[in-house]
Amino acid sequence: MRALIFDGQLRLATNYPEPVPRPGEALIRPHLAGICATDREIARGYMNFRGALGHEFVGTVVESDDERWVGRRVVGEINAACGACPTCRRGEGSHCPHRTTLGIDRRDGAMAELLALPVANLHLVPESVADRAAVFTEPLAAALQILELAHVRPTERAVVVGDGKLGILVAQVLRLMGCAVHLIGRHPERWDWIEALGIKTGDGSDLADRSVDVVVDCTGNPGGLETARRLIRPRGRLMLKSTFHGSVEMNLTPFVVDEIAVLTSRCGPFEPALRVLERRLVETERLIEAVYPLDQAEDAFEAARGRLKILLAIA
Amino acid sequence: MRALIFDGQLRLATNYPEPVPRPGEALIRPHLAGICATDREIARGYMNFRGALGHEFVGTVVESDDERWVGRRVVGEINAACGACPTCRRGEGSHCPHRTTLGIDRRDGAMAELLALPVANLHLVPESVADRAAVFTEPLAAALQILELAHVRPTERAVVVGDGKLGILVAQVLRLMGCAVHLIGRHPERWDWIEALGIKTGDGSDLADRSVDVVVDCTGNPGGLETARRLIRPRGRLMLKSTFHGSVEMNLTPFVVDEIAVLTSRCGPFEPALRVLERRLVETERLIEAVYPLDQAEDAFEAARGRLKILLAIA
């Protein structure tokens, strides 16, 4: 089959072996896959990954032990847990030490004509949610994890640092709380439609030090983290959404003095994300900058640099 | 001026004295006023109120010491606090023991050609929010208070008991969290458009005992409270939104055993409510069943029984 793989370099393979589903796994034909910042890091050697890339997808089940899934349109959680270890038995499969992760860690991903995932990872896509929206389920779930971790009140002020794909989704989720939301970034060309949603945008220079109740850093770079640290009020909540590639040194003593909670998250809940898409509570269409066919996946990766969402059309 | 008053009976007065604003108060000409369940109780003698009814309104400032307010379109918080007592100095003016309350307690209300309120109570209405939406600011603020009190997570299940005006607003606010939301009521004729928003409706018989994370009672009657008590899970949060007219006996021991938090609220925050209206996050138009001119206010009160929102058009 065709697949976009990394084997020391990023390339389109035309004769890559099809995945062989294990017991309990389904075989899925992806329709669309999204390119995310993590994919671009993997293409530079992150995680020492080898195989087909891609973890954001929507597709159709073509094979499963459980006939009820065959022919259904699905999205899938990316961590394939063992299901048997103490961590899994506590219901925390996304932290299973034996897990593989779709397109990220020892499991071929979704930028291919077929992928395999445990049936336990799958979620049906409601009929009213189009493929172009459903492909955002995984990053939207990551954004919703903010609300799972912390109580953000309608009377509070929230700031999101970073106006990339994830930052814009996080700001949109915070907007639903009724609270004042500011998105700080460096891409004024993206701000008009975001402002129209009731989210203030800017470079953050108008925001007073130590004035913000909830700050979410979506930049993953030391500059963004420094901005977040400057803005957070005593007793505020600072949330870190991005994977920091490499280590970031940080003096935590001021946080202790100011009683600031530092909350971190990686993956989020899929069912709420699908409900939010079904209720049309977030704008995803404006996040899509281009759709490339799988055959032009290498060009798509090049185009994804510094852009909003680039999708791959597969089947 | 004309005003709908209660002086032992409900009647339209045509020569009622105009309010005389005290220092710091503005004189406002209401455009629309909403009839709420509390108004109907007042018309039956609740609070021993005497004077012009009405606390839900949108209007234009016609007179103020502060010229910047004159001509502006406003909504207003209903509790007029003294501003000087220890409660007010703690920032809790809505609990000021010396407060008067618009159309509810020793202050003439909004179902009249003019009303007076402290400038400190006023909020500008954003241009994009029409009068027919802005008139819902007060009840929507009351609904948003749910989110001020408790952390409702996207992965949780919330149930609202009571499909009246307030219950439908509360369900719509909970819907924004991404959580599963059920509205339990007795008015199937109202459910189609509510279901289309992603809110499940029904009589609650399909919901298992002790299965719900967050239950909000918006009925204010013992039957509704009993349903809420049946559904709430151990360690869940039970919220009481309605004013109980008269006392309701309740054995609290099971709550202690099950570690259930009982949270209550009355008024809510206006600025978040205006942001939610500006962002078009809740449907208010479908809540309006009829608009009556002030001259037909007595008929409007009669029509409001068992109906959704009835508005009075004043100026």
Structure characterization notes:
2 copies of one chain form a homodimer. By secondary structure, chain A is of the alpha/beta class. Chain A folds into 2 domains: 3-136 and 284-313, Quinone Oxidoreductase, Chain A, domain 1, CATH 3.90.180.10; 141-264, NAD(P)-binding Rossmann-like Domain (Rossmann fold), CATH 3.40.50.720. Chain A has 10 helices and 18 strands. In chain A, strands 3, 5, 6, 9, 10, 17 and 18 form a 7-stranded mixed β-sheet that branches. In chain A, strands 13-12-11-14-15-16 form a 6-stranded parallel β-sheet, sandwiched between helices. In chain A, helix 10 (297-303) links the parallel strand 17 (288-293) and strand 18. The longest helix of chain A has 13 residues, at 137-149. The two termini of chain A are 12 Å apart. In chain A, 50% of the residues are buried. Chain A binds chain B through residues 144, 147-148, 150-151, 153-155, 173, 175-180, 197-198, 268-269, 271-273, 275-276, 278-279, 281, and chain B through 144, 147-148, 150-151, 153-155, 173, 175-180, 197-198, 268-269, 271-273, 275-276, 278-279, 281.
